[in-house]
Amino acid sequence: MEIQQIVITIISAISLSLLSGFVILKRQSLIGDAFSHIALPGIALALSLKIDIFWGALIFLLLGTFLIIAIKEKIKIFLEAVVGFIFLLFLSLGKIFIEDEELIESLFGNIQKATTLDLGIAIIVCSFIIFTVLKFKDKLAIISFSEEFAQAEGINVKKIDFIFLLMIAMAIALGIRVTGVLLVGSYLILPGLSCLLITKSFNRFLLLSGFYGIISSCLGIFLSRFIELGPAIVISQSLIFIIFFILKSFKL
């Protein structure tokens, strides 16, 4: 694996892992996992136009974000139900338009095709996410615990939720190159879930989530010498979670 591919993997991990804490606190882990499948038609479009899959994935993830928000506001139903509907629709469209060989690559990722342009995109996206998280982390934290309290405090919940979904869309579009559509959701679940076991401090929780992404990616890169990178990273994340769980259970 080349240096730029390793850097892209680690940067993608940081971007997704920082958001993982909020996904867990908002109890939206399944939403984060389902959200990634919205990118499939975009990947099919990008492959047919022979452009970077990041742009195709991002366009459809952003489209999915706007549809989710519009439907949720229009008929006032749970976010999980809206995401489930959009997920199934876009997943079906992706399967129709993408070929079987390309479908496997889309589901599990292929970092070997990453370019210098991908590295530049990764740096820009990660910088945007870090800056935005630092700027809005207090408001995101309050909304994660109670939307009603956030509204009472004068926080524009709709605006912050939109920014949050926008960051998730960008991070998923970035991470698909590394782990694929099927496994990128692990970055939105396991870092936050694992770090919640070892700390109660919110700021430390966010910091550890970022480090978790880096460490699990480095371990996954090492394991990728024997198996595919995407599954290797998920296995690494799972092993770290198990270790944290054992430490928590036995109070070590």
Would you spell out the secondary-structure blueprint of this structure?
Layout: H1 3-25, H2 29-35, H3 40-49, H4 53-75, H5 79-97, H6 100-108, H7 116-145, H8 147-152, H9 157-183, H10 190-195, H11 202-223, H12 229-249
Helix pairs in contact: 1-7, 1-9, 1-11, 2-5, 3-4, 3-5, 4-5, 4-9, 6-9, 7-9, 9-12, 11-12
Describe this structure in words.
With 252 residues, this protein is mostly helical. The chain has one domain: ABC transporter involved in vitamin B12 uptake, BtuC (Orthogonal Bundle), CATH 1.10.3470. The chain contains 12 helices and no strands. The radius of gyration is 18 Å and the shape is globular. The N and C termini lie far apart (36 Å).
In short:
The chain is an all-alpha fold. It has helices spanning 3-25, 29-35, 40-49, 53-75, 79-97, 100-108, 116-145, 147-152, 157-183, 190-195, 202-223, 229-249. The model has no long low-confidence stretch (mean pLDDT 78).
Report the mean per-residue pLDDT as an integer.
Answer: 78
Instruction: Give the second-level CATH assignment, the architecture.
Output: Orthogonal Bundle
The dominant shape is: globular
**How much of the sequence is in beta strands?**
under 5%
Query: In CATH, what is the class?
Result: Mainly Alpha
CATH fold name: ABC transporter involved in vitamin B12 uptake, BtuC
Strand tally, please?
0
Structural class: mainly alpha
Approximate helicity band: over 70%
- Unreliable spans are none
Describe the largest sheet. none
The CATH homologous superfamily: ABC transporter involved in vitamin B12 uptake, BtuC
Succession of helices and strands: HHHHHHHHHHHH
Termini separation comes to: 36 Å
Q: Please, how many domains?
A: 1
Number of helices: 12
Gyration radius, rounded: 18 Å
